């Protein structure tokens, strides 16, 4: 599938869905209702959207899921067609449906809670996220879902792009899951033979994430990427514990590593990560979301929820120590809030 889909994996990342259950706009559920929740399976689907040869873009839709009561989602299954690669599913608490695909800024949508909080990012043609026992994402009645899809047509003929998300539910869970997207924009890769490394980068997380349980983690680069490694660490130079180091990293369809039992985010500290690349393009390559740019990121799924966050470390500000930021940031944290607004604008360093 890698040859037919994006020659670029990116996040911040991407989903494009229009919604409805069944094919008639009614939720496809086997109804079993208790006092506050319903159970069953709901679908959100985008497409087909015709994409011209050589066309690369990111589009979003915002659609209602059609559930008549709260639902507890225990499993999300994403199915992507040719030309799609990175696909992000968000939930929104307010807003109006926008079922027609519209241009949207990849990845930066996750920085603004008004755009919704991410539930899942997919880089594979078919991927299922199964949460641990008693752990769910809770969705409100008639949930508004935002879908963001990055796609590219590398062929010579127009093609249709499609994608579908399936929400599988249960009753009676008591623990809420959430999502963290993390990395660094500090990438400058001169064209030369051999392997180049970004990192190790140390990214401490806000203290309230300490002790949170991480049950799944995925690394992310674009087409020059060779490896992504992530370890938990209490300091920049102290001992670490490896939590992501696949034996064969495939940039186009990177592994999601499940941890059973989950590992915990350190009470003091966070993550230390590295990415390696091989750049023989003849051009310097920097950070960005396009097919010819690069990234060094990872995302993780954790519980109990402290909110969805996009976190980054950069040495381009606040020298010599750099800047650590998690978005959305509290407005009383002036520096972090300003950095989040800057990143949200799309003016990524």
The count of domains is 2
The helix-strand sequence is: EEEEEEEEEEEEEEEEEEEEEEEEEH
Low-pLDDT residue spans: 1-35
CATH topology of the largest domain, by name, is Jelly Rolls
Number of helices: 1
Percent helix range: under 10%
Average pLDDT level = 82
N-to-C terminal Cα separation, in Å?
Answer: 32 Å
> Over all CA atoms, what is the radius of gyration?
19 Å
Q: From the coordinates shown, what is the CATH architecture of the largest domain?
A: Sandwich
What is the beta-strand fraction?
over 45%
Report the top-level CATH class of the largest domain: Mainly Beta
**Strand tally, please?**
25
Could you give a short account of the major beta sheet? 6 strands, mixed
Structural class from helices and strands? Answer: mainly beta
The coarse silhouette is globular
What does it look like?
- There is one protein chain.
- By secondary structure, the chain is mainly β.
- It folds into two domains: 32-176, Sandwich (Jelly Rolls), CATH 2.60.120.310; 178-344, Jelly Rolls (Sandwich).
- 3% of the residues lie in helices and 48% in strands.
- The chain has one helix and 25 strands.
- It has one helix spanning 334-344, and strands at 32-33, 38-39, 41-51, 56-64, 71-80, 84-92, 98-103, 117-122, 126-130, 135-139, 144-152, 159-170, 175-176, 178-184, 188-189, 195-204, 213-220, 225-233, 240-244, 256-264, 270-278, 285-286, 296-303, 309-314, 323-327.
- Strands 3, 5, 9, 10, 12 and 13 form a six-stranded mixed beta sheet that branches.
- A hairpin with an 8-residue loop joins strand 24 (309-314) and strand 25.
- The longest helix has 11 residues, at 334-344.
- The protein is globular.
- It starts with 31 loop residues before the first strand and ends in a 5-residue tail after the last helix.
């Amino acid at each position: 599938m890698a040859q037919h889909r994006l020659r670029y994996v990116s996040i911040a990342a991407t989903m494009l869905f229009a919604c409805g259950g069944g094919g008639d706009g009614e939720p496809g559920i086997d109804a079993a209702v208790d006092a506050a929740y319903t159970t069953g399976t709901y679908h959100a689907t985008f497409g087909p959207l015709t994409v011209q040869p050589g066309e690369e873009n990111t589009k979003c839709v915002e659609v209602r899921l059609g559930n008549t009561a709260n639902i507890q989602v225990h499993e999300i299954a994403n199915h992507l067609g040719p030309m799609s690669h990175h696909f992000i599913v968000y939930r929104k608490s307010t807003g109006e449906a926008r079922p027609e695909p519209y241009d949207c800024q990849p990845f930066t949508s996750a920085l603004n809670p008004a755009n919704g909080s991410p539930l899942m990012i997919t880089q594979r043609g078919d991927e299922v996220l199964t949460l641990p026992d008693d752990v769910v994402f809770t969705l409100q009645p008639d949930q508004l879902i935002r879908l963001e899809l990055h796609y590219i047509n590398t062929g010579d003929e127009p093609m249709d792009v499609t994608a579908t998300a399936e929400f599988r539910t249960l009753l009676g869970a008591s623990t809420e899951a959430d999502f963290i997207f993390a990395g660094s924009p500090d990438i400058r890769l001169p064209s030369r033979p051999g392997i180049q490394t970004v990192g190790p980068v140390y990214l401490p997380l806000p203290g309230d994430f300490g002790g949170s349980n991480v049950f799944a983690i995925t690394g992310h680069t674009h087409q020059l990427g060779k490896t992504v490694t992530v370890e938990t660490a209490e300091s920049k130079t102290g001992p670490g514990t490896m939590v992501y180091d696949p034996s064969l990293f495939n940039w186009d369809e990177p592994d999601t590593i499940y941890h059973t039992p989950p590992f915990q985010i350190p009470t003091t500290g966070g993550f230390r990560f590295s990415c390696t690349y091989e750049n023989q393009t003849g051009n310097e390559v920097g950070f960005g979301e396009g097919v010819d740019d690069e990234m060094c990121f990872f995302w993780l799924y954790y519980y109990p929820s402290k909110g969805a966050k996009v976190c980054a470390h950069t040495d381009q500000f606040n020298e010599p120590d750099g800047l650590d930021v998690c978005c959305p940031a509290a407005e009383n944290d002036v520096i972090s809030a300003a950095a989040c607004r800057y990143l949200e604008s799309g003016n990524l360093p």
